[in-house]
Write a structure and sequence with these properties.
Blueprint (H helix, E strand, L loop, with lengths): L7 E6 L14 H15 L4 E6 L7 H6 L4 H25 L4 E5 L8 E2 L2 H9 L3 E5 L9 H11 L4 E6 L4 E2 L11 E2 L1 E3 H7 L6 H9 L4 E5 L5 H6 L6 E4 L1
Parallel strand pairs: 1-2, 1-6, 2-5, 3-4, 3-5, 6-10, 9-11
Antiparallel strand pairs: 7-8, 10-11
Helix pairs in contact: 1-3, 5-7, 6-7
Length: about 240
Amino acid sequence: MPDVKYRRILVKIGGESLSGPQGFGIDPDRAEELAYKIKRVHDMDIEVAIVMGAGNIWRGRDGLAHGMERATADHMGMLATVMNGLALQDALERIGVTTRVQTAIEMRAVAEPYIRLRAIRHLEKGRVVIVGAGTGNPYFTTDSAAALRAMEIDADVLIKATKVDAVYDADPLVNPEAARFERISYIEALNLRVGVLDSTALSLCMDNQMPIIVVSLWHPNTLENVVMGQAIGTLISS
């Protein structure tokens, strides 16, 4: 087994990672591709927890733009994260990775309720744990849920796997001259109002000294390189 820096990781993955070229919905081929990425790092004897987003199915701001109540829009997003979690669980199970989906909103017919000690026990037994339904509360993003769950399960690091390869001082997809950071402090990230993580998630990680690594999900061997301690993406820490 190779020497690794992080033994227990929580990976925040946007819902868009499951969508195909059309940019919405769940693409089984993309789910399978994502499952293999997770399997490769899991096969390194790494304990892996995942928090899924919902952007491929529902974006609350679209509802808000039409006058929808914020709590209703957020609860719809929570349900969408569970759909994504079940799709990823199915893809992982089909390639031999034992997986459990836990949800912050109880729906026992399809998933376990989120219980911190049970999630930790699953990880210790080598199971991948997918946590859905955010925090179970409106007004909190899935980024905030990922930060909270990372603390609760005593993860070594929170990995924000996104479509950009690092933190920039502007959107690199819009501004090709945007400056890229290899390391940045929590305070600097908050002051920059970085788009890859919301301020609540950043503040929670800062208060609890949880390191965050922002990387591109789709670069080859991203997760393996992170757990080996290689300097990729952006490290947000104190």
